[in-house]
Amino acid sequence: MPQTITFFRFMDYQAKLSVPFGTLGIRCTGDALTGIDFLPAGEKPQRATSAFAQTVCEQLLRYLENPDAQFSVQLELNVTPHQQKVWQAMLDIPRGQTRSYGELAAELKSCAQAVGQACGANPIPIIIPCHRVVGKAGLGGFARHTSGAHLDIKRWLLAHEAKAPSPLQGEGWGEG
């Protein structure tokens, strides 16, 4: 019987932050945030390896305590012009509110699929709030996933930010 070899893609994280819905992998250079990853359940936290990574962790924890907390960390992103427009539109969605992929597409003179692709390509979820973009009749996807733990994280983030019950709760809530 042939031997099966499994390859794992190891990321070099500057911190692994324990949060209510799991663990966040923080990637950064010396002075800029480059990525936030949702790590598998059971991933062990890791102390920040730099002062900047510690600042990122502190700002994320502040947000988790108070969804009105503002982020001020420097970002370093490889971004297309379309992604930049979509990500800026996501930043403009007020906390506690959502927009559908179609609404953003109409606003940006794009299409819902292209908006969804830009949302999925967002390397720093939470800070660029792609969780605030939902489907026309349900939750939509999150971080390139249409089911499972990632949608549970999206639900958690939306509930955390909600001032009033979300109009998505009830029929269709949580459908991909």
* Structural class estimated from helices and strands: alpha+beta
The count of strands amounts to 5
Distance between the termini: 39 Å
- Any idea what the shape is? globular
Largest sheet: 3 strands, antiparallel
Strand order, main sheet: write it out. Answer: 1-2-3
The mean pLDDT is 87
Unreliable stretches, pLDDT < 50, 5 or more residues?
4-9, 164-176
Helix/strand order: EEEHHEHHEH
Specify Rg, calculated over alpha carbons: 17 Å
Number of helices: 5
| Proportion in helices | 25-40%
Q: Which strand-content bin applies to the residues?
A: 5-15%
What does this structure look like?
- The protein is an alpha+beta fold and 176 residues long.
- The protein has 5 helices and 5 strands, in the order E-E-E-H-H-E-H-H-E-H.
- The strands form 2 sheets. Strands 1-2-3 form a 3-stranded antiparallel beta sheet, with helices on one face.
- Strand 2 (22-28) and strand 3 (33-39) form a beta hairpin.
- Helix 2 crosses helix 4.
- The longest helix has 15 residues, at 51-65.
- The relative contact order is 0.13.
- The model is unreliable at 4-9 and 164-176 (pLDDT under 50).
